[in-house]
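USER:
Working in pairs, take the chain set out below, taking as long as you need, and write a paragraph about the fold.
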Amino acid sequence: ASPAARKQAHQFGIDLLSLTGSGPNEAIVLRDLTAQISTRPVEPSQENASATPTSTTTPFSSTTSAMRQAISDAMTRSKQEIPHYYLALEINLTQAQNWLMEQNQQREPEQRLLLPAILITAIARQLAKHPQLNGFYQDGHFTPSSDINVANTISLREGGLVTPAILNADQLTVAQTMDSLRDLTERARHGRLRSSEISQGTITVTSIGERGADMITGVIYPPQVAIIGLGRLRKVPVVDGDAITVGDVMTVTLAADHRVSDGINGARFLHALAKQLQHPEALL
C-alpha cells in the first residue's frame, strides 16, 4: 500500500488486508480506500433495527452514510486507544478583531481576511515552539513532525466532514493562510482535494462556527496527538485594570495525548497562543 493509503486506512479504521489494490503490482492506493468507504455498509442500531421506516425519514446517500460510519469508527478507536486530557482557555481577541477591521478597510471584498486565518497562523507559529503537540504516535512511540501541517475541519453541504491540511502553515502570513482556507473549502466541497492535503495533517483545528456553541472539545484524529477547538466568538465584559469594557472573547480548547505531553505543556501552549494573539501585526 502507498504511504498515503496506509495513513488514511489507519485514520478510518480500514483493514488493508481486506482490500484488493488497483495500483502497480496490485498496490493499494487512495482510490481503493475511497471506493471501500463509499460502499461500506452501515449497521442499524439496535434501537431502530425493528422500526418501520416512514415517509418522514430523511434519506442519506450511501456515500454520506459511509462517511458517518468512517468518522464514527475513527473516533471510537481514538477514545479507546488515546488517553486524552483536556484544557480550555478564554482568549481576548479584541485586539485581533480591531486589527482585522483596519486591514480589511484597505482590501477588496474578495480579499478580506477572516478571524480563522489569524487563529490558524498563530497556532502554527506557536506549534514550532511546542513540538510535543505536533506529530504522530505510532508503534508505541511518538515522532514529532518537522513540518507543521494544520488540518482544518470543513463541513460538507451533503453531510459529513473532511479535514484537509494547510501545508507548512507556520511559514505562511495571515493573508496566505486566508487564501489557503478559501481554496481548500472550495475544492473540498467539489471533491477536488489532493491526497497530500488529506493525509499529511500533523494536528487538527476544529471550529463550531459563529452560530455554534461557546466551546467545542475535539477528539484526536489518530495517529495525531492533539486537536484544538475554536468556540464561538462572543462579546463579554472584560476587566482592564480598574475599568470594565466590552470585549470579544473566544474559548479555545486543547485535547492532547497524555502519552506524549502533560497538562502543563498544554497550558503553556494555550497561554503562549493567547499572548501571540494580542499582537496580530506580528503575523504578517
